[in-house]
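Retry 2 of 3 after timeout on previous attempt. Resubmitting structure tokens to design endpoint.
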């Protein structure tokens, strides 16, 4: 760019030279012009520099625009890749969640499997150090009593007697393993599945961190003795004897489902357990938490719930029957039938209507009255009925007597060993009475049989000579019997023997008629028929004698007397064990 100051500078005219001497204004004008011209030159230079700078900025702007366009395109690609990465991440996250869930399931399965493995290993290698007292009882039981019961079938309720013996063995074994248990009063807690038996017992615990297995499905799989102790402890008692400690975490998972996954009936290996836990008030009661008596069609490895419940109920000095009010408004028919059958045990019964908090108070009172009436109409005695809430740990209402009043009455020390001896003695007494009655019946029948033989001999029933045998069986059986001399048993015996004789003689008569019809006029045929009649008559007499001999053997009392002698020996063994126990 040309210097503005040089090109625009005005020449000094003559007039200016003249006037500038005399006129300062002219000089000032020249100075102002030149100053303005200098400013213009400077401004022009600044403008030039701005233009150059602008050109540079423009070039840079174009470059930046190009870079921006390139960045925008790259950003779009990055955004697409980012969105793809986010989608892939979310997919991986979902997959990881699924895998984590699967892993947790496998870990749980592995934990369950290890728990079951550890439980079985502990059960097959328990601490087994029974006392000499218990060993003496087992010897008496296995070597004498059980073989005796297996051979002697004289009682009508043999299965019930075996159940009582098993209950005695379990109870004595518990008392031998835990000294504290021998001082407890046993209270069985039974009822239908999911009625709230376990939650009822748990509500009595002082330690809220410990609980029996609880759920809406059948949960209690192994009968468990629950009683007070200062420290929490769980033990298992295998079938072969001894005991082992069970971690509380494993015990709390011993539901039907957990047990069924063993693949066999765990109760065959582990028939019962014990839980020692601090209780709020009850220090002398041992509850038995039992499986529901009505598991339905579950079958499988836990299908014997009813048999297990019956066996352990027989141990109790008292029974609490639990009905869940969440599904029942009265006593179910099955429960009534079961309570009626259990009334033969002659132990106190208390009925608890659990989950009463799910009903309005007016409905609770109505149900209490209705159940009281049903129990009365069915002839089932009871100590009281309680509407109870396990969730709250409190009683809402009751009839007759409150639950805690009755439990406090039952909360008394007892001597388990004395009760065991008493229960077993009652079983032996039942067999003794049955055997003595059997001997009495056999003697009575043998006496009647002898009288019958004398009567038959007197009237010629054993004569084989037709000409002298005037015995008419049908006439003899149709004659009236002197009721003062013959009992109904004698009549039955006579009817049985003579009935066979009558049938034989009728067959002989039929043979004779046939012979006559085919030519009895011929003398040879008549003689042959008479000989056959003689042979048949002899056969009949021999048959009667054989029948009488068989009856004499049936009515012999020798074997029953031997059984009584053996039973007396077993009783002496029990008394000897009682003396050792007392010592």
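Retry 2 succeeded. Sequence:
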């Amino acid at each position: 760019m040309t210097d503005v100051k040089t090109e625009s500078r005005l020449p000094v005219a003559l007039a200016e030279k003249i006037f500038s001497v005399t006129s300062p204004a002219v000089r000032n004008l020249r100075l102002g012009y030149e100053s303005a011209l200098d400013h213009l030159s400077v401004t022009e230079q600044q403008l030039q520099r701005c233009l150059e700078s602008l050109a540079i900025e423009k070039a840079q702007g174009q470059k930046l625009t190009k870079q921006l366009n390139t960045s925008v395109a790259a950003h779009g690609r990055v955004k697409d890749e980012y969105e793809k990465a986010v989608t892939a991440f979310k997919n991986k996250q979902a997959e990881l969640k699924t895998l984590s869930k699967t892993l947790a399931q496998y870990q749980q399965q592995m934990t369950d499997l290890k728990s079951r493995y550890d439980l079985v290993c502990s059960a097959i290698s328990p601490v087994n150090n029974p006392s000499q007292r218990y060993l003496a009882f087992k010897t008496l039981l296995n070597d004498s009593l059980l073989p005796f019961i297996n051979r002697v079938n004289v009682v009508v309720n043999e299965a019930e007697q075996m159940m009582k013996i098993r209950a005695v063995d379990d109870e004595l074994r518990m008392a031998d393993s835990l000294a504290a248990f021998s001082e407890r009063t046993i209270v069985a807690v039974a009822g239908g599945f999911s009625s709230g038996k376990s939650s009822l017992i748990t509500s009595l615990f002082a330690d809220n961190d410990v609980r029996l297995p609880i759920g809406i499905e059948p949960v209690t799989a192994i009968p468990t003795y629950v009683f007070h102790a200062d420290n929490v402890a769980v033990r298992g008692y295998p079938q072969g004897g001894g005991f082992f400690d069970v971690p509380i975490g494993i015990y709390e998972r011993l539901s039907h489902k957990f047990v069924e996954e063993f693949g066999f009936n765990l109760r065959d290996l582990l028939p019962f357990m014990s839980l020692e836990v601090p209780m709020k008030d009850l220090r002398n009661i041992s509850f038995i938490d039992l499986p529901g008596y009505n598991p339905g069609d579950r079958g499988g490895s836990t299908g014997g719930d009813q048999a297990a419940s019956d066996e352990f109920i027989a141990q109790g000095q008292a029974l609490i029957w639990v009905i869940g009010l969440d599904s029942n408004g009265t006593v179910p028919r099955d429960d009534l039938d079961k309570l009626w059958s259990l009334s033969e045990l002659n132990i106190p019964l208390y009925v608890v209507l659990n989950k009463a908090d799910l009903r309005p108070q007016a409905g609770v009172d109505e149900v209490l009255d209705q159940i009281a009436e049903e129990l009365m109409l069915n002839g089932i005695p009871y100590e009281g009925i309680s509407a109870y809430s396990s969730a709250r740990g409190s009683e809402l209402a009751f009839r007759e007597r409150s639950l805690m009043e009755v439990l406090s009455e039952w909360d008394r020390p007892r001597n388990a060993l004395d009760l065991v001896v008493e229960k077993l003695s009652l079983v032996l007494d039942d067999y003794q009475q049955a055997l003595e009655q059997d001997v009495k019946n056999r003697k009575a029948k043998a006496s009647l049989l002898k009288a019958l033989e004398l009567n038959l001999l007197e009237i010629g029933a054993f004569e084989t000579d037709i000409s002298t045998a005037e015995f008419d069986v049908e006439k003899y059986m149709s004659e009236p019997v002197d009721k003062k001399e013959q009992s109904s048993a004698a009549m039955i015996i006579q009817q049985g023997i003579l009935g066979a004789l009558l049938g034989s003689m009728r067959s002989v008569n039929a043979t004779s008629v046939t012979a006559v019809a085919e030519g009895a006029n011929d003398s040879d045929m008549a003689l042959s028929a008479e000989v056959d009649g003689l042979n048949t008559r002899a056969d009949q007499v021999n048959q009667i004698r054989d029948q009488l001999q068989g009856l004499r053997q049936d009515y012999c009392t020798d074997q029953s007397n031997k059984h009584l002698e053996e039973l007396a020996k077993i009783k002496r063994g029990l008394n000897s064990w009682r003396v050792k126990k007392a010592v």
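Attempt log closed. Residues 296-302, 466-471, 481-486, 504-531 have pLDDT under 50 and may be disordered.
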